Amino acid sequence: MANADNKGGSFFNRLVLRNSKEIYKPDTAYQKALLELYEDAYIIINHENKDIVDFNDRLRTMFQFPPELDLKQLQLTRLMMRYLADDSTNKELMMNNIPDLWQGEATFMTHQKDKLYAYIKSNIFYEEATKFQIISIRNITEKKIAEQELKIYKDKVENATKAKARFLSSMSHELRTPLNGIIGTSNLVLMEANLPENIKNHVNILRYSSEHMLGIINDILDFSKIDAGKLELKKHTFYLMACIENTIKSFEAQFQANETTFIFSSMPGLTDIRVISDEVKLSQVFNNLLSNALKFTMGGTVTFTVKIEKLEEHTSTILFDVKDSGIGIPKEKQEEIFQGFAQVHVDELSRKFGGTGLGLSISEKLVAKFGGKLEVESAPGEGARFYFTLPFINAKPKEIKAADENIMGVKCIKDTVGLRILVVEDNAINASILISFLKKWGVRVKEAGNGIQALELIKYHQFDLILMDLEMPEMNGYEAIKKIRETDRVTPVLAFTATLLENMESLISETGFNDYVLKPYRPAELKKKILEYAPHRIVNYV
Questions:
Q1: For the chain, which domains are there?
Q2: Cα–Cα 20 to 30 A to 371, which of 7, 21, 518, 535?
Q3: 0.70 cut: is pTM over it?
């Protein structure tokens, strides 16, 4: 089908589609103009000998070819050998034989030694009996550089997040360890009989100041965990009213000391409501709101109202409302109070009332995690009202029974007298304080300074419970629990640690511990934890 048209002009005007019955022969100038509009570069090669028979001008500019370079004198293989980058994707395929129908990426070095990232497409067509291959090259350099920069940025963010987590973990451990000594010693002194009143007052100030510092550390760690999206609710069955009452009791002395009137208002039926939720985090919200109300309401009134909004067979919807008669919050500042480290009052008042400015931010995020929204109504001099409504899943009868019977159907012991407990702790001060509490509670104690010593004692003694630090020399707690669980899958082992990690719950359960006690601890909470797990608590390990 060759004719006079085939003797001159561009090869592009003689394209023949596979399976076409006739050759498409548009005007040469039109065809050339159309192809030059494309951003892609094109090369046409003879499929049999790989000679380059035509190309568009975009190829020359993309590869920065000098004007004198005649590409039609080259084979595709020689072009690839000269300009394909050593680290190119699909290098072997591009060098040897690009398939007829193919698409993929490749990297080139231009004539001026600039890197060119390209997306390649290959197709074939026939002119009479001759097979030709057309290859398009699209410049994706900007996209690839953007992807690389994004990856570098993401890696930097991930590394910064890991560094932050390591720093917070280290800070938690280094600050909590001496605080454990201060708070623990304070509690031990306050347990002494016939303590002079002036000494008791001094020790109470010491304990309060230490616990205030601990609260700041906890706020910073909680804020960091929530901000990183790492906080998860740990759900179990509990009485909602008991959770509220325990929180209120912890504030009684503070309300009296500040001469602030506290009013609690509830509805009939709340006492019987048992839910499945995270009691600790819910208590934290109540604590933050009451603490905030108390701080800004010296000599005034704080009212805590709890109302049943809706009570159904499987769910309960409850309104929680904390209102104070304190200094109030200006309208224009009410959005700021939920931001981290925000202090919305003037500097003098901020210094007077103190705090990190994290309590409300943490509370707002926790309430959102529970499925509600923390809202505020306030005006300067008229106090503030913080309220939210939460949906709860009601506990089923069998879940209630399990909770009442300590989950495993084993009746809880009522006292610690006579229990055999192994304390594994390398810090002499922490060990001394812990052992002092245990002995006051009638516990028989053995002591080990690291995992190796603990394993030796376990060989010759039987224990009802083991309290074990995680960070120890020679053999740490993680290594020790692994060895213990090889032969003993029954004895409860509680991690006793000053390090609060983001994935604490999962890490503890996965490594074989039953639970953990975070230092510093309140003696009553430690005793409650011991009573919960000892003795003869059966645990199924996978």
A1: 4-139 (3.30.450.20), 232-402 (3.30.565.10), 420-533 (3.40.50.2300)
A2: 518
A3: no
